[in-house]
């Protein structure tokens, strides 16, 4: 299990225990975390699962691919160097913890 902490725009933190192989988006939705809509269900087609990965955790995940890069240009809030789609962030084996911040808005 990885300890995934989501910090919303007002600073409220939610920490979830997430098994390897689960995306941060799915874990957030399953646990009723507000601020992630995931309208396309994880198909890289909506950008409403946008998060900012804290820099020290960025190397846990594969780099942004072409599809994700295109969708990150369509986020409601600014794209930053730390922007990712949380449906593309699958918790790897051996991951201890991840911290992501949620944008102010997803749409
Ligand atoms: S859930 Fe739609 S892009 Fe991630």
What attributes characterize this protein structure?
single chain; 107 residues; alpha+beta; Ubiquitin-like (UB roll); five-stranded mixed sheet; 5 strands; 13% helix; 22% strand; binds FE2/S2 (inorganic) cluster; iron-sulfur; 2 iron, 2 sulfur cluster binding
Question: What does this protein look like?
Answer:
This protein is of the alpha+beta class and 107 residues long. It has one domain (2-101): Beta-grasp domain (Ubiquitin-like (UB roll)). The protein has helices at residues 24-30, 66-72; strands at residues 2-7, 13-18, 50-53, 83-85, 97-101. Strands 2-1-5-3-4 form a 5-stranded mixed beta sheet. β1 and β2 (13-18) form a beta hairpin. The protein starts with a strand and ends in a 6-residue tail after the last strand. The site of FE2/S2 (inorganic) cluster has 15 residues, from loops.
Q: Multimeric state of these chains?
A: single chain
**Any idea what the CATH superfamily is called?**
Beta-grasp domain
Number of separate domains:
1
CATH class call: Alpha Beta
| Small-molecule components bound | FE2/S2 (inorganic) cluster
- CATH topology annotation: Ubiquitin-like (UB roll)
Q: What distance separates the N and C termini?
A: 31 Å
The Rg value, from CA coordinates, equals: 12 Å
Q: What's the β-strand tally?
A: 5
Principal-axis shape: globular
Overall helicity: 10-25%
CATH architecture: Roll
Helix/strand structural class: alpha+beta
The topology string of helices and strands comes to EEHEHEE
- Low-confidence segments, given as residue ranges, are none
Domain 2Fe-2S ferredoxin-type: 2-106
Protein name: 2Fe-2S ferredoxin
Organism: Sphaerisporangium siamense
GO molecular function: 2 iron, 2 sulfur cluster binding; electron transfer activity; metal ion binding
